[in-house]
From TrEMBL:
It comes from Streptomyces katrae. InterPro entries: Glutaredoxin (IPR002109), Grx-like_ET (IPR051548), Thioredoxin-like_sf (IPR036249). Residues 70-127 form the Glutaredoxin domain. This is Glutaredoxin domain-containing protein. PANTHER family: GLUTAREDOXIN, GLUTAREDOXIN-LIKE PROTEIN NRDH. It holds the Pfam family Glutaredoxin. It comes from the Bacteria. SUPFAM superfamilies: Thioredoxin-like. Signal peptide: none annotated.
Amino acid sequence: MMRVWMLPLLLVLGGAAVATGEFLAGNPGTAAVSLAAFWALAGVNSPLIFPSSTGAREAGRGSAVDGRPVVYWRPGCKYCIRLRIRLGRSARELHWVDIWRDPEGAAAVRAANDGNETVPTVVVAGRPHTNPDPAWVREQLSRSA
């Protein structure tokens, strides 16, 4: 659990240090902008922007029932963040599995990617696709509806 919050925590602490330094140097405007930028980066790299994750087994069952893709991801992954942001509101319709919280999900990703934990890995109809284009994922989602 702590591992998923490590990067956001470091960004918040780093931002606080930079902002404090700027404030003490007599630059309160720069301090405020720096702090806001670091907080924004922490938010984007936190699990907060992702829909709640389920386990790989539960996501697989859900996908079998409703036909929606399963997305294996991990916090801090810039490609996962890109996918999540580009999917917009439709991201909530997918089944998300955080591989850092679910060992079974991590094993599924390694099996699909020659032993590597390459994410995002999107499973559509039982076939894994590594780092697919967000437009393609949106198309797959619309087909399942």
